[in-house]
């Protein structure tokens, strides 16, 4: 039977970390929490629940996770964020895969919560992520936002049933603040990669984002929540490209 280390990165996650770690009980053999010097009770709660806590000032999403992977004791790593938790079906699926012998990597479907409701359409679902992998064969990239897992070619990917429950978007204000922060990071990344944006793209890309989320991906089936999220996605697209345009103007300005 293979053994699994869970790696969780945190920063002031006292309201979430207990739910996350309790969902891992009986599924993994070790929990490593990489904590960005939280000022709340995150680290104390994690230690009380048996996690090994590494206090590490923020390096970035990917580097922070890679540090946790390097500190893990076991060959396979299950990567979670503090506001995520395994549902019962996914817990059983991971245990069955572990008991049968792990091979390759495993993808899960993430079920995102918005304002108290889990969203099953739009751009939020099925939101598949590879989260269970051999730590010597996978590395998180250094993207400042939406970090990705770099995997070798030819590694088999199996899909596990169940859901990774993502308790995000608690309030509209939280969503707007997060969209503003992430759009800044995304614009900076695009600019550094040499991407440029036209006024036409700034005008039409948000409209297409809304259409894709609400119509093509059937966000309308989630009612008012689906409408709100489609609007928020469109706004995030607008912010990202408008900020990229601003960076272009600043770079072109005479010095």
TrEMBL record:
Pfam families: Glycos_transf_2. The keyword Glycosyltransferase does not apply. Keywords: Transferase. The keyword Magnesium does not apply. Residues 5-128 form the Glycosyltransferase 2-like domain. One of its GO terms (molecular function) is transferase activity. PANTHER family: GLYCOSYLTRANSFERASE (PTHR43630:SF2), POLY-BETA-1,6-N-ACETYL-D-GLUCOSAMINE SYNTHASE (PTHR43630). Belongs to the glycosyltransferase 2 family. WaaE/KdtX subfamily. This is Glycosyl transferase family 2. It comes from Anaeromyxobacter oryzae.
């Amino acid at each position: 039977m293979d053994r699994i280390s869970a790696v969780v990165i945190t920063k002031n996650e006292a309201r979430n970390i207990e739910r996350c770690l309790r969902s891992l009980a009986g599924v993994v053999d070790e929990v490593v929490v990489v904590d960005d010097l939280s000022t709340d009770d995150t680290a104390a709660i994690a230690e009380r629940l048996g996690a090994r806590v590494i206090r590490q000032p923020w390096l970035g999403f990917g580097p922070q996770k890679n540090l946790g992977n390097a500190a893990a004791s076991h060959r396979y790593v299950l990567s979670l964020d503090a506001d995520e938790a395994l549902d019962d079906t996914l817990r059983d699926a991971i245990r069955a895969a572990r008991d049968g012998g792990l091979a390759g990597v495993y993808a899960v479907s993430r079920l995102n919560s918005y304002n108290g409701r889990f969203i099953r359409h739009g751009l939020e679902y099925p939101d598949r992520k590879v989260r269970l992998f051999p730590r010597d064969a996978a590395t998180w990239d250094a993207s400042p936002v939406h970090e990705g897992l770099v995997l070798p070619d030819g590694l088999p990917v199996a899909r596990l049933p169940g859901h990774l429950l993502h308790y995000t978007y608690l309030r509209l204000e939280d969503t707007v603040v997060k969209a503003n922060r992430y759009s800044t990071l995304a614009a900076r990344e695009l600019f550094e990669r040499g991407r440029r944006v036209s006024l036409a793209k700034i005008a039409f890309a948000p409209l297409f984002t809304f259409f894709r989320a609400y119509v093509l991906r059937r966000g309308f089936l989630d009612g008012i929540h689906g409408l709100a999220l489609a609007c928020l996605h469109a706004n995030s697209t607008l912010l990202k490209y408008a900020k990229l345009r601003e960076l272009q103007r600043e770079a072109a300005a005479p010095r």
